[in-house]
């Protein structure tokens, strides 16, 4: 009986984890990342938000060298 429960649990669980990993996850990322950037620009203002991104990218590039 325990093996049957485990088999049924796997049959139910695996399609959902596959769907989340390969379908829902990338869709959420495609929506939430740009949305977060827009929200940050709204909070900081366009000029200060652009400066923060520019400073962050320059810092990242300088750290690589």
By secondary-structure content and strand pairing, the structural class works out as mainly alpha
Number of helical elements: 2
Give the integer mean of the pLDDT values.
88
Instruction: Choose one word for the global shape.
Output: elongated
* Number of separate strands: 0
H and E string: HH
Terminal CA distance reads 60 Å
Low-confidence stretches: none
**DSSP strand (E) fraction?**
under 5%
Q: The biggest beta sheet, please? A: none
Percentage of residues assigned to helices = over 70%
Oligomer: single chain
Radius of gyration, in angstroms, nearest whole number: 21 Å
Number of domains: 1
Keywords: Membrane, Transmembrane, Transmembrane helix
Transmembrane segments: 7-23, 29-46
Descriptive terms for the model:
65 residues; mainly alpha; 95% helix; elongated
Textual characterization of the structure:
The protein is 95% helix and 0% strand. The protein has 65 residues and is mainly alpha-helical. It is elongated, with a radius of gyration of 21 Å. The protein has one domain. α1 crosses α2. It is built from two helices and no strands. The termini are far apart. The longest helix is centred in the middle third of the chain and has 43 residues. Keywords: Membrane, Transmembrane, Transmembrane helix.
